[in-house]
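User: Batch of two.

Assistant: Item 1 of 2:
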Amino acid sequence: MRSLKDDWLLDCYSDAIRLQLDPKFIRLLLNEIHRRLDDPVFRRTWFVLSGKISSGGSREARA
């Protein structure tokens, strides 16, 4: 089951990409995301979100 912390992490990452924040900060977020990929639900959510980010979709499109 996804936790609020997982949702926060994914939202934070998508905002950091959209706002073009410091690459070191984005890398730290990505390291934490990769650490959590053992969880199948988190992994599935991450792959959906990462596809939307790379295709230029926004967080609002997920709602």
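Item 2 of 2:
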Amino acid sequence: YNFTPERVAKALPAAWEIASPVDAIDAREKSAVAALRRSGVSDDEASVVADLAAKALAGADVGGRILFAANQAMVWPHEPLARLWHATTLLREHRGDGHVAVLTAEGVSGRECNVLHAAAGRVPADMIKRARDYDDAQWAQHQHALRQRGLLDGAGELTDAGRDLKRRIEATTDAVALRLLDALDDS
């Protein structure tokens, strides 16, 4: 949602020259399992959490959630740490796709959301600009558009309206994502 289309168009074809999608997914899973193992996560712990997540995710609606749907269509791994990794991927993508829907409903573009995020002080603007391929002119253009809507002040900081919008976006995203947990009970 917030990468430049040019970056995606350039990166994806090149990525498949390095590794096939199947090989990339396999390497990602193996490295995640190794990292979880190094972090001291036991198979028993992973199984409990993955089973709870699977229960929560079982009835999740894939409508409008393209990244979640793509990951949901994958076969769940059998190995406990791999299952935990898959479960957290699904939870992340479910929330992320919901976040994109909320941003879209609020009229915030993918590129503008990065500028708002930096203005909120969560991540330095230079880091976002570098990671998401903004040049100074593009960044300034998005700041100007957000200023025109009363969301940023002259210094590029959030206005009260900008803070309210950020809070509303995060609260709505959380509310939509947390509905998954309704499937869990005390049993």
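The chain has two domains: 5-105, 110-173.
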